[in-house]
Each structure stands twice: as C-alpha cells, then as structure tokens.
UniProtKB/TrEMBL annotation:
GO terms for cellular component: cell outer membrane. InterPro entries: Bact_OuterMem_StrucFunc (IPR050330), Gly-zipper (IPR039567), OMP_bac (IPR006664), OmpA-like (IPR006665), OmpA-like_sf (IPR036737). It is found in: Cell outer membrane. It comes from Aquimarina algicola. Its main location: membrane. Residues 1-25 form the signal peptide. SUPFAM superfamilies: OmpA-like. This is Glycine zipper 2TM domain-containing protein. The lineage of its organism: Bacteria, Pseudomonadati, Bacteroidota, Flavobacteriia, Flavobacteriales. It comes from the Bacteria.
Length: 230
C-alpha cells in the first residue's frame, strides 16, 4: 500500500472517530475546526486540499489553507462571526462554514445574479455586493477567491468566457468599493464544476452562479498563532 492510500485510510479513520463522538456532534464550527485541525489537519490539507486546489476552486482554497490545532480554532471563531454577518445582511446567500474558512454561493435565486448570456451587474446584485464589501472591510485580514460558473447550455469556450466575465465583474465591483485588489483572486470554470443537475431548469439556474471562498490571510494566521503562545 502506497503512502497516499495509507493517508486516505487514516483520514477515513479520523473522520469515523470524530463524527461518532457526541461531543463533536454537539460542538460549534469553531470547536470542530480546532478538533479536526489537531487530529487530521495535515492529512486534510495534503490530500483534500491539493486535489481540490488543482481546479483552483473556492472550496479548494478554503480546505487547502488549513492551519489546524488551537490556532485553527481561533481563526474559526473569527470566521464564525463573519459568516453570521453575511447570512444576516444578505439572506439570499448560501453561506457554508468549511474548516477555517467560508464558502459563499450566489445564484440566480439568491443575491448576485446575471441575465441570460449577460455579465453586467444589475441593481440588486450591486446592492448585495455593497453589503458584502462593507463586511469585508470589517474583516480586513481575509482573502477572497471569486469564481464564475455557468450551466451546460452553449459550447465550452463560450461558457468559459462568460464565467470569466461574470467573475471579473464581481471582482472589479468590489475593488471599486474599496476592497484591495491584492485580497482578491479570480477564477473562471465555465460549466466544468456543476453543483446541481444541468438536465433541469432549476439545476441550470443554480449552476449559473458566482462562488466565493473566504480564507485567512498571513496576518490572521500569524495573529492566531501568537495568541495561542500567550
């Protein structure tokens, strides 16, 4: 058995133990982040992070940026607050706390969306991005990955360009609202990373989305580690 398979086996065993523990089931995101980070952070960062990050995905950036341990728990606590703020101010957004980061999805039914075959931001999208920019200013020690996605309608090349233009529209708007360009990384995926069934109108609508990954920057990581040492 090679080293990768051994690591995968170890990961499965760790998750089996963690998910069967009542204390972990009843814990919050911050507590789970600290426990998982201590027990399996290196394995998760190495296997899951590297595999997902090959696709330059928002979720890959979140998983691949794991610090782990007690410092990871400190970061997780700050991310809990930011996630709650986004959920409170932008109810249509699909906000998921993942490890030490946040995954935010906007589709045609929630928050930031585009007319068919268009990439210009409408009034409602701008209003929600204004709120999001305000939250990002409150939490300056985070970096943001912005992804554009489409459904499977149309050819691959067209969809890739469309998703790129939509992601750039969001990134450029956030920059215009005072978010440092250095905090933002933009990717386009076209139709290659669907989350829903493209054979249904509802699934296609949800796949026409902009997805954001919010992760700790180096300052937040260092501050968390310094706090642990005190």
């Amino acid at each position: 058995m090679n080293k990768t398979l051994k690591k995968i086996g170890a990961t499965i065993m760790v998750f089996a133990m963690l998910t069967s523990c009542e204390a972990v089931k009843n814990s919050n995101n911050t507590q789970r982040g600290a426990v998982i980070g201590t027990a399996a952070g290196a394995v998760l960062g190495g296997i899951i992070g590297n595999n997902v990050k090959k696709k330059n995905s928002a979720l890959g950036a979140v998983i691949g940026g794991v610090v782990g341990g007690v410092a990871g728990g400190v970061i997780g606590k700050q991310m809990d607050k930011q996630a709650q703020k986004i959920e409170s101010e932008i109810p249509g957004a699909e906000v998921t706390r993942v490890g030490e980061g946040i995954d935010v999805v906007f589709d045609e039914n929630s928050g930031v969306y585009f007319a068919t075959n268009k990439y210009d931001l409408n009034a409602k999208s701008k209003a929600n991005l204004d709120k999001l920019a305000g939250i990002f200013k409150e939490y300056p020690d985070t970096n943001i990955v912005v992804e554009g996605h489409t459904d499977s309608t149309g050819n691959d090349s067209y969809n890739m360009t469309l998703s790129k233009n939509r992601a750039n529209a969001v990134t450029n708007y956030l920059v215009s609202k005072g978010i440092s360009k250095g905090r933002l990384t933009t990717y386009a995926h076209g139709e290659t990373l669907p989350k829903y069934d493209n054979s249904t109108p509802e699934g296609r609508a949800k796949n026409r989305r902009v997805e954001l990954g919010i992760v700790a920057n180096e300052k937040m990581k260092q501050d968390a580690q310094n706090q642990v040492k005190q």
